[in-house]
Input
Amino acid sequence: MENYIFGIHPLAEYISNGGKPEKVLVQQGLQGSNFQQLFSLIRSSKIPFQMVPSERLNKFKKHNHQGVVAFIPHIAYQSLEKVVPAIIDSGEMPLLVLLDGITDVRNLGAIARSAECAGAHAIVIGEKGTAPVNADAIKASAGALSRIPVCKESGIVYAISFLKACGIDVVALDDRARQNIYEAKISGPLAIVMGSEDRGISAAAKKMAGTLASIPMQGRIGSLNVSVATGIVLFEALRQRLNF
Output
């Protein structure tokens, strides 16, 4: 079940108090000073929105939505700039997973489950073009998305740049990389970048990453589901950390 906020005043109050919806549906043709104030707030807060015909909002007709429906995240997103120093201050060796354009909620959930089991400290996603952390994602994660911090950043390239500045090695999984994950040294402070299901890692993220690595394949299909691939890389990093 999704979480929603309906109506102009409730949504304006939610945003003014620091809340940030995943997305806002706005009925086309809305007018009035209250709506204009809300719309300015949405844009200044850089909240994704979509103008839709009134028919799109028919399923919410039992609610007094006033032409505005906001999708509210199921979890509280955390700031990467706060999470990383906290990891370092704790004396632990950072292990993070960056998702560059993962759009399937089941893959997001499965990745979170593997990340939590491998001892990862956080998952990083972008603000746009990524699967929402909704009820289906949380269910697929077996609850891991409620336990592992999720950082929602302006872009994965920014996140990579910040992590490298913090002394964290960034390894991007690329099936064309000459070096495979068993040859790469991934036992230190590490961030693993995984690309989208259909396009892989973006060129900008690939360029920013410190290391490219592949998973050696012998079958005819030649590719793995992204959640399976993430699990393989995470547990190879854990194996190297544990020296066995």
Remarks:
- The first strand starts at residue 4 and ends at 6.
- Helices lie at 8-16, 33-44, 80-89, 105-117, 135-140, 156-165, 203-208, 226-242.
- The mean pLDDT is 93.
